[in-house]
Amino acid sequence: MSALVPLLVGIPLFGAAVNLIFGRRRRIQIAVSVISLTTVTVLAAVLLVVVDTTGPMAVAIAGWDIPLGIVLYVDVLAALLVMVTSVVLLAVLLFSIGQGAADNDQDTPVSIFYPAYLILGAGIFNAFIAGDLFNLYVGFEILLVASYVLITLGSTESRIRTGVVYIVVSLVSSILFLAAIAMVYGALGTVNMVQISERMAQLPQDIQTILHLMLLLAFAIKAAVFPLSFWLPDSYPTAPAPVTAVFAGLLTKVGVYAIIRTETQLFVDNDLNFLLMMVALATMIVGILGAVAQAELKRILSFTLVSHVGYMVFGLAINTPLAVGATIYYIVHHIIVQTTLFLAVGLIERRAGSTSILKVKGLMRAAPVLAVLYFIPAINLGGLPPFSGFIGKYALFDAAARVGTPVMMVLIVGGIATSILTLYALMRAWNLSFWREENDSAETMERIAYLGNAPAAAISTERRTIPRIMTAATAGMVAVTIALTVFAGPLLDVCLRAGERIAEGITLVQLQGEGAEE
Known about the structure:
Layout: H1 7-21, H2 26-54, E1 57-61, E2 70-74, H3 76-103, H4 110-129, H5 133-151, H6 157-188, H7 193-199, H8 205-223, H9 232-235, H10 241-266, H11 273-292, H12 297-318, H13 321-352, H14 363-366, H15 368-381, H16 388-403, H17 406-435, H18 442-447, H19 468-486, H20 488-504, H21 508-513
Antiparallel strand pairs: 1-2
Helix pairs in contact: 1-2, 1-4, 2-3, 2-4, 3-4, 3-10, 3-13, 3-19, 4-5, 5-6, 5-10, 6-8, 8-10, 10-12, 10-13, 11-12, 11-17, 12-13, 12-16, 12-17, 13-15, 13-16, 13-19, 13-20, 15-17, 15-19, 16-17
């Protein structure tokens, strides 16, 4: 069974190579991409069942035994995130197929998009199953190189400009990460995560703190944690709708995943929880206040993305098995719901010719299906019961309340306020875009005039038809968001078990006992 693990990365890379060979054959590229991601989804589901039943597995590749070789490590957390990621990538791929066919691939050139898309997926999968810091770095670099291509597709002025900012920030983060890896190796003589966790206690606390802060700084930039989130709201909205949806749903979660490994495995005895609590509170509040001040839907969602990363950091700062499990559930919830919302906004942009809530109006009559596709994930992200957003927040607040310190109470209040403001920002956008009539009264225009100076408030694009496959892909993702609520009990149980097992840790002896596959 462990032989399946390398295929999680190998299949999309092989698919990308095939797509490059058939650069002018759109149908072949689509078929290869769909088959690759579907296969990874099935493999990840199988591995999730296996590791949840029998425990984690590790695979050493390239002929070197554990821990000397490149180690791929799969536990419940890694398998779950790979499965969710592949589902999201598959849904967005179907969305992009419809968009490309309708627009003659103007925004997503076939010869470039599909290979880069699969390489992006391979990088994400590699990061999730990396068993050592350097392989984690390689995973980051694979996905970042692919994201550089995807974020500048179309080569418009705005995309090149924001793409440069994204690339510079990513390179700075990567340099910090590489420097931290060098420092860890110099101090401990290894980059294997299990060996690091066993040897870290040998270092003085001040050295541990320096290494800890270096890794957190690098991962916080990738996760868009305040105040290192300045780059995100300007970078994501300019990309094509499918690219924006994938970036918003997945890329920051890779950074959060790295923070989970850092906090729960590498630095168990070096406590920076209070710092994480303050950062989490600031990320939640500043992010959502930014969203309230926006008039463009993609920017609103980008700022809510920043704020909800704060919930994930909040869960890690609590640092209990229950909180880690709740954080994992919230990550799964947010990946799916945030991606769905960006897909819905992509449909709004095509139907209305704009994503500005000052310009979009009357869509309830013109496109009632689109109203539903936006409304359901919006109230879910806002945390309205009984949806998964409410369940995830409640689990986090419950874990914090059990700790019961005054700081935890402040964070709970901050989390509740963020949830209310999220609901306000998203419902205001829904009200103005769908319920506002074509002939606005002077009173209505005066009431929203304060948004006129918001960035991109006057942006307009060409109105285009919405292919059925784009609507179907978005509706499928909405169905998945509902399934998160319907099956919240079993999914939350899996996440809580993952949190407990992460807290228990794994020793080098156990890792070697899993066996190595070349």
